[in-house]
Amino acid sequence: MGKARAYGWTCVIVTNGRTVQQEAKIRKTGLHRLVHSWVISEAVGHRKPEPEIFQAAADAVGVPLPGAWIIGDSPHADIAGAGTLGLRSVWVTDGRSWAQDSYQPTHIAEDVASAISHVLRTSG
After folding, report:
1. What's the number of CA atoms in the CB half-sphere (13 Å) around residue 111?
2. Other C-beta atoms within 10 Å of 76: how many?
3. Torsion of CA 50, 51, 52, 53, to 10 degrees
4. In this predicted model, what pLDDT tens digit does every residue of 14-32 receive, in sequence order?
5. Is this structure's pTM higher than 0.90?
6. With bands split at pLDDT 50, 70 and 90, how would you rate the model's confidence at 123?
7. Among residues 71, 69, 37, 74, which one has the least CA distance to residue 56?
8. C-alpha span between 101 and 86 (Å, rounded)
């Protein structure tokens, strides 16, 4: 994410779960130092893939949602959410195969670093 920020991207974590638990994970892993903000479902009253949670992420950093990329490992929560909003997406496989027929990610990557690299290469 540091590379994405260096390229001028605004990075926001969007996650489902309890606020206390998710914020602890974000801080413990050091992600809080790499992103501009985060949005947690319990705090905003909407869960991924609901469009409102992604809009809350854009609002949290003051950028428009159109043009955003969603990078995630959940076909339903992340990739279907992106599709509903007409956003581009990268699905992080973690060694799994894509098994959905009703929607597709824009791109598939093996890990988050590869996903970010793809976004930077194709959005420049």
Report:
1. 2
2. 12
3. 70
4. 999 999 999 999 999 999 9
5. yes
6. confident
7. 37
8. 17
